[in-house]
């Protein structure tokens, strides 16, 4: 007896949990989970800062792990769930790995390569087509990113203010 397929919302919630892990590590909160036959074969969250690795995006981490689990760089019939629209590098990796489907939450107006800035996955010159489903839990995915960058701006503002006043007043008794 086979288990019923879990929903896109279920897997996107899983990816959101991974994105929160990135936040906890001081990284941009993006999470990704790679699913094959209704089970996780790869997961990742942004780790570029901590690993000093510009390629350590959530999607790349999940694809690398999936390749190891499958013992194959071709990840046919897999679905990659990502909280944010992938960048050019990650979209290219999806084509090279031959994933079947990409499901993403929020659009990325600045660097999105699946329709926002460009559309790598639907480019006619590519040798593999990836099915795309977008907008799954988009409000939750967007809110996580907005909250993170709002916090970052507050922290930077506080540091800037603190650096202007090298001798803060002593606490009053």
TrEMBL record:
CDD domains, per the entry: nucleoside_deaminase
EC number(s) given by UniProt: 3.5.4.33
Domain named CMP/dCMP-type deaminase: residues: 6-117
Reaction catalysed by this enzyme: adenosine(34) in tRNA + H2O + H(+) = inosine(34) in tRNA + NH4(+)
Primary enzyme class: hydrolase
GO molecular function list: tRNA-specific adenosine-34 deaminase activity; zinc ion binding
Assigned protein family: Belongs to the cytidine and deoxycytidylate deaminase family. ADAT2 subfamily.
Official protein name in the record: tRNA-specific adenosine deaminase
Protein's gene: tadA
